């Protein structure tokens, strides 16, 4: 089981272009067919990051079947990253190549939110519907992970980082450092703002070869304390990782989770990163594979 790194979506929560918006950015994206579904990322046939509202559509659109998926690493419970309806579709699976259960790894606050949500909806539906059915069938398991700890799952070594992207004032989003079976280390940095000293210290000497980072706001100038990144702050984040000794020689980065408040098209965003980033950066697109 090697790497099969692929973007199932590269858009932010509102999708790109926003279907409710006719601003020039969205209209230009429509004309250029520059479509970005909500962000998710395939690590290999058995492992992926996030399971949001567009995952099933992306699976069909890019011919990426999910029948072998066994582990999903959830960054946080915003619905563009964690969609219970799409998870529930597994109740209707017949033949499946992968093993049950599918394990969803998430933070302890995220798991607590999930349990509260299921308890709240059970009286409305006479049960919590397909998610409860999955649990009863042994087809899903939700596993809480501690921040800033290594664990093993799906043939990978995985390290978790808490970020300043907070859900409902209680749940810090997780970023993940993956050590792949061939030793390659990949940092999945979405959603997040600029890392603080704790995160940078934890990544010091990590030898990260691939950085997949959000770049939600692109051309927009964001304050340092923002819970998302713009192009300028992406460059600063990469420089901070470089200064911390976190990047391997020849490291490269990919930008995902882009919204329409970014006024650059892909070529303009790419040109900015080519000029300003300290390492090679590619603006990712839906369906893109990392070789």
From TrEMBL:
Coiled-coil region(s): none
InterPro entries (alphabetical): Metallo-B-lactamas (IPR001279), RibonucZ/Hydroxyglut_hydro (IPR036866)
Domain Metallo-beta-lactamase: 66-258
PANTHER family xref list: HYDROLASE C777.06C-RELATED, HYDROLASE C777.06C-RELATED-RELATED
Protein name (record): MBL fold metallo-hydrolase
């Amino acid at each position: 089981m090697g790497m099969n790194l692929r973007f199932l979506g590269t858009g932010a929560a509102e999708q790109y272009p926003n279907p409710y918006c006719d601003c020039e950015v969205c209209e230009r994206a429509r004309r250029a067919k520059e479509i970005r579904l909500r962000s998710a990322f395939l690590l290999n046939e058995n492992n992926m990051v996030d399971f949001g509202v567009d995952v099933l559509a992306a699976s069909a659109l890019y011919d990426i079947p999910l029948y072998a998926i066994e582990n999903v690493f959830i960054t946080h419970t915003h619905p563009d990253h964690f969609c219970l309806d799409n998870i529930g579709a597994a109740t209707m699976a017949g033949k499946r190549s992968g093993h049950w259960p599918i394990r969803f790894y998430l933070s302890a606050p995220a798991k607590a939110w999930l349990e509260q949500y299921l308890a709240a909806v059970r009286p409305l539906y006479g049960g919590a519907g397909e998610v409860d059915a999955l649990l009863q069938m042994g087809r899903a398991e939700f596993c809480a992970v501690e921040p800033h700890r290594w664990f093993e799952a799906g043939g990978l070594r995985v390290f978790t980082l808490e970020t300043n992207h907070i859900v409902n004032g209680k749940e810090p989003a997780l970023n993940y450092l993956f050590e792949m079976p061939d030793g390659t280390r990949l940092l999945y940095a979405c959603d997040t703002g600029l890392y603080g000293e704790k995160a940078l210290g934890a990544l010091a000497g990590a030898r990260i070869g691939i950085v997949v980072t959000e770049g939600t706001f692109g051309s927009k100038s964001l304050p340092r304390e923002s819970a998302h990144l713009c192009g300028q702050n992406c460059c600063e984040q990469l420089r901070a990782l470089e200064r911390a000794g976190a990047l391997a020689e020849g490291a490269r980065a990919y930008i995902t989770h882009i919204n329409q408040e970014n006024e650059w098209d892909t070529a303009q965003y790419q040109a900015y990163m080519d000029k300003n980033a300290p390492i090679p950066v590619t603006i990712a697109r839906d369906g893109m594979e990392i070789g």
